Amino acid sequence: MKLRKVTAASAVLLALSVTATACGGDKKDDAGSSGGGNKITIGIKFDQPGIGQKTPQGYSGFDVDVATYVAKKLGYNADQIEWKESKSADRETMLKRGDVDFIAASYSITPERQKLVDFAGPYLLAHQDVLVRADDSSIKSPADLNNKKLCSVTGSTSAQNVKEKLAPKAQLQQYPTYSACLTGLQNKVIDALTTDDSILAGYASQSQFKGKFKLGGLKMTNENYGIGVKKGSDLKGKINKALEAMVSDGSWDAAVKKNFGPAGYKNEPAPKIGDIKS
Amino acid sequence: MFDFLDGYDVLGAFWTTVQLTLLSAVGSLVWGTLLAAMRVGPVPLMRGFGTAYVNIVRNIPLTVIILFSSLGLYQTLNITLAAKDTDAINFRLAVLGLIVYTSAFVCEAIRSGINTVPVGQAEAARAIGLSFSQVLFLVVLPQAFRAAVGPLTNVLIALTKNTTVAAAIGVAEAALLMKDMVEKEAQLLLISAIIAFGFCCLTLPTGLILGWVGKKVAVKR
Amino acid sequence: MTSVLYDAQGPRAKRRNILYTAFFVVALAAVLWWVYASLDEKHQLDWALWKPFFNGSEAYTTYIWPGLENTLKAAALSMVIALPLGAVLGIARLSDHMWVRVPATVVVEFFRAIPVLVLMIFGNELYSQYTDVSSDDRPLYAVVTGLVLYNASVLAEIVRAGILALPKGQSEAAMAIGMRKNQVMRVILLPQAVTTMLPAIVSQLVVIVKDTALGGAVLTFPELLASANTMSGYYGANTIASFTVVAVIFVVINFSLTSFASWLEGRLRRGKKSTGAVLGVDETVNIPGHAGTGTAA
User: Fold this and answer.
1) Measured between alpha carbons, how far is A64 from A43 in angstroms, rounded to an integer?
2) Quick one: average pLDDT of A119-134?
3) CATH 1.10.3720.10, domain B9-217, yes or no
4) Which of A67, A104, A216, C40 is the most exposed place for a label (fewest CB within 10 A)?
């Protein structure tokens, strides 16, 4: 009797877990039908406020605005867009495999990446910069970062860049996300957070941080944000046209103001299509 | 064949793993024993604390504990454990996190060891007038430890493997090196084989040697 | 055993205990107060950072629930795949044939000697370099692969110990009535061992649930811990608050699993109709000379 009960219990457990996984499977099938039909799948960041951030109301940020505008010009309304998270390391693979139609995810155009994917744009010229506390004026040049505690996300190129070239004596703290760095920056344990100024401006623009942080304005590198498409895709030309339209009808300026404005971020003028600053 | 190893400090990374393991092992043995003493002791509040500690800590992922020790202790409470530069601070915090986590399992292993000591031992000790701490530390624990060598070995081996979680706060140990290498180099299988071999070298002999020690010191009853 | 360690308390011992208690309370309170004061000073206890978790459900529906769903999905998948695999490996280790026993032993010992995280990183690169698993699914595949390889080996040991824990009379009697080895295992030993092992299997589930967090921290698996990261990006870097909430959720899930396992163990031990052999929650820890416990991250 007892044996049977227990066996029954374990069978129920097993069945439960199987159904749980089966549900997961169904959902995946729906998402799998990307590209076809009247939907467009766009890769963005989910965890960069001001650039691409998942919020309870949907998605927001500059990349999201640009991508929405481009999609509109391509003939897709906002409700026909399916957003996918594209982590930095996954971007090339996602395009190559056709998981997404295009990617707008703080995606800098570099010669190495151009070998693997095509880029439309650039649509924004960003620079590697530092974010410091508003009352800290000790960092005026990259060399001032020596002996400072610098934070960035694990494996990011910006951190390596500072450590290897600009300020070899800087102490590097790496975390999985920028939010963790911000906690330290707020508490005066970290002196500076380094990555692209657009991302930093996005963080600093959040209402919670008003007046707490400022950008260093160091312009350590040029980052030309482009929209990544599959190699040889005919989307490139169409997206370029859409980007040009976005700049000329003023939507570009509006998007910059909306997403980076509160941080006092002095953005570069809209870059010309194909004008990649090295 | 091994050209790709240039520029990577494989031995250094494993040395960090070993250091993490040994320091955390000593720390969690001490703290775990104290916890076990609290849990079997006469003070109800300490018993409650020990039980609560073990039940909470055992059920939190180590990853959360390690991230917490860096974000909470270092970044927020500004505890640096007397280290100056970031790497040293992270290393020490990782050790602290591993001690906090592992001691819960050490405590349980020692308690299981205490359970193997016959009641007569403690009764006899009390009969000759020993106090609780004397009963525990002079009579019961020495025997309990001999019985607990097996479970403690398993905790030590698990600890060795758990040091890889320190990668989450950027401690340059074996798993972080592996992640770095597999992303930049093409020889996935070879790199994995090297790291796997390294861990086998650390864990398998530990199991064999301490297994033998455990049999040697076991109290024959 | 516990109460055997000290005498019934007389007036002096009672006084001493009160003193100890007082000391302990003061020390504990001092630490807690210091933590509270420091957190407060650093504005980590500001209502704005904690509000999302107490005010409305959007933090749960947008971030935490999808993360939790992934955590549970990965844990359930791993258990479902690892269980039969572990059973096969465990039985193979008990085989009379060397060519079955030795490879099974090697596999089990190898995967128990290697950190789960290393297995996960390996899986992730393997899928990205040699297969065309979509990048949406890859972290899940990698996490499940790592968990299955490790836990199948641990479950193999549980199965083996469960079978060995059965009274010898069971297999002897079965053989006496002319059953083959195969039949003894299938009809007599395994069904009884399942009962024996149930508590240990449930508590292994705790290990699996905890280990999924590795995928969130080091790979890009969007599980519960990773959801705290996305969440803190939106709520103004409330990392401490987010991690605390996530930790509490983990404790609640795992504590109920652990309690269920202990309840099951007690019930089985008290049961009269079974053989009385039960593999306890912590008992796999005690298989002498073997690596791996329920303590992996």
Assistant:
1) 9
2) 90
3) yes
4) C40
